[in-house]
């Protein structure tokens, strides 16, 4: 009988085997969510010159510094109009102003911008009814970015604001870690694929599509291999098709039944296996090793077991290979709302619903927790993580919950 491996030990084994991939360059419109492969350093200041933060008039502060009554406003000669995208031809002399739009470079001689709502103007004159502080409404050169500053560090997953910054720095291409290629394979004669003829004796292959979506969410590029029949030859043929990928994720055929051939086929293909069973529920029968240069995961066939074990093992490996520095789901502590009991030799992951009630974070299960009930995951926004040594839980007990997705 194979020894049960603790989940923390299994996670360490998997992460030690997963190394970040190489770097490639992509256009910034294809970089969202990718992990930056090198520091982004600003080549110049931004803004590159002092510019107006308001529509108004560029003036010398000495001409408007005295508090004026509306009856006697400061009156200045307007010598030029400067729209955004243009630079002033003239400088601002004593008693003069330049009409200026937001974003336009500050003209020489001016040290303050009076916002337009504090003025009354004609084509060539402006009256200032309210003074502004010296240097008011000016964005100084380098206010946002200084030349030589590291703006986005290596290892950062790129967000929309980051892509905007790359555009501002005139970087159309960006170095990012390569996407891990993940071959996804389901096994079992009982399975039918979505485009197969309808057969009431078959069940639909849901694992491959849920798994492929999970791969994509983790930052990988899934390759759907379809379904392998319950024979060593069929399984070997399908697995061989995925060995050009960085990772193989197989669901089904990893238990001890008469038609579970994964262990034998992995051995025949020369796999270096690290573990075959985990001390968790759902998901005890799990295999992990390497076949040539491909990390190979054999996950259970039951949909919930497959998804839970993917979350705990394959997802962190994909993220690390894709350059991420952090791969754990956010964890919160919540008040458990039910009674629960289990044996003290397995770490359990219950599908849960996190809510905030009267300022307190609470969690309850999604209902029946059968490993074949995919609805238990559809309803969940968290996995309730119950350690091996905990045998019972009562309402009000504090539990750890791994937060899934963004719907909480």
Describe it.
The mean pLDDT is 92. The chain has helices at residues 7-17, 160-168, 207-217, 232-241, 262-268, 303-321, 375-378, and strands at 4-5, 23-27, 40-41, 51-52, 56-59, 74-82, 96-100, 112-115, 119-121, 125-128, 138-139, 150-152, 173-177, 181-187, 191-192, 203-204, 221-228, 247-251, 272-278, 280-281, 285-291, 294-299, 331-336, 340-341, 347-357, 360-365, 382-386, 392-393, 398-403. Helices cover 17% and strands 33% of the residues. The chain contains seven helices and 29 strands. It has four domains: 4-22 and 179-321, MoaB/Mog-like domain (Molybdenum Cofactor Biosythetic Enzyme, Chain A), CATH 3.40.980.10; 23-46 and 144-177, Molybdopterin biosynthesis moea protein, domain 2 (Alpha-Beta Complex); 51-139, Molybdopterin biosynthesis moeA protein, domain 3 (Beta Complex); 331-403, Beta Barrel (Beta-clip), CATH 2.40.340.10. It starts with a strand and ends in a 5-residue tail after the last strand. With 408 residues, the protein is an alpha/beta fold.
Q: What is the CATH homology-level superfamily of the largest domain? A: MoaB/Mog-like domain
Widest β-sheet, arrangement of strands: 1-19-21-22-18-14-17
Largest sheet: 7 strands, mixed
Tell me the structural class. Answer: alpha/beta
Radius of gyration: 31 Å
Please identify, by name, the CATH architecture of the largest domain: 3-Layer(aba) Sandwich
Count of discrete structural domains: 4
**What average pLDDT do the residues reach?**
92
CATH topology of the largest domain: Molybdenum Cofactor Biosythetic Enzyme, Chain A
Count of helical stretches: 7
DSSP strand (E) fraction?
25-35%
Low-confidence stretches: none
- Top CATH class of the largest domain: Alpha Beta
Fraction of residues in helices? 10-25%
């Amino acid at each position: 009988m194979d020894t049960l491996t603790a989940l923390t030990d299994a996670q360490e084994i998997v992460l030690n085997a997963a190394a970040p991939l190489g770097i490639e360059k992509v256009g910034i419109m294809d970089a969202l969510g990718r992990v930056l492969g090198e520091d982004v350093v600003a080549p110049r200041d931004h803004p590159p010159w002092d510019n107006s933060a308001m529509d108004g008039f560029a003036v010398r502060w000495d001409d408007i510094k005295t508090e004026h009554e509306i009856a006697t406003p400061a009156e200045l000669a307007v010598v030029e109009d400067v729209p955004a995208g243009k630079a002033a031809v003239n400088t601002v002399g004593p008693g003069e102003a330049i009409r200026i739009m937001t974003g336009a470079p500050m003209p020489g001689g001016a040290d303050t911008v009076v916002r337009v709502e504090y003025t009354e103007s004609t084509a060539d004159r402006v009256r200032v009814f309210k003074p502004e502080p010296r240097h008011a409404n000016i964005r100084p050169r380098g206010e946002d970015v200084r030349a030589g500053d590291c703006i986005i560090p290596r290892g950062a997953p790129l967000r929309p604001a980051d892509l905007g910054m790359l555009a501002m720095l005139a970087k159309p291409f960006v170095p990012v870690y390569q996407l891990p290629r993940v071959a996804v394979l389901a096994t079992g004669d009982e399975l039918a694929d979505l485009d197969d003829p309808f057969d009431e004796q078959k069940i639909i292959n849901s694992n491959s599509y849920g798994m492929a979506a999970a791969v994509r969410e983790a930052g990988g590029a899934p390759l759907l291999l379809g379904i392998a029949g319950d024979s060593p030859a069929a399984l070997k043929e399908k697995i061989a098709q995925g060995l050009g990928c960085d990772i193989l994720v197989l669901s089904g055929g990893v238990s001890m039944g008469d038609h579970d051939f994964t262990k034998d086929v992995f051995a025949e293909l020369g796999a270096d296996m690290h573990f075959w069973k985990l001390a968790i529920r759902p998901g005890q029968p799990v295999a992990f090793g390497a076949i040539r240069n491909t990390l190979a995961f054999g996950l259970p066939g039951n949909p919930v077991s497959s998804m839970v074990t993917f979350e705990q093992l394959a997802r962190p490996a994909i993220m690390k290979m894709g350059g991420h520095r952090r791969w754990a789901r956010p964890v919160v502590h919540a008040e458990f709302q039910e009674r629960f009991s289990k044996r003290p030799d397995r770490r359990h992951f219950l599908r849960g619903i996190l809510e905030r009630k009267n300022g307190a974070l609470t969690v309850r299960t999604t209902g029946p927790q059968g490993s074949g009930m995919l609805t238990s995951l559809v309803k969940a926004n968290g996995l309730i993580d119950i350690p091996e040594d905990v045998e019972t839980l009562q309402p009000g007990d504090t539990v750890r919950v791994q937060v899934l997705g963004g719907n909480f």
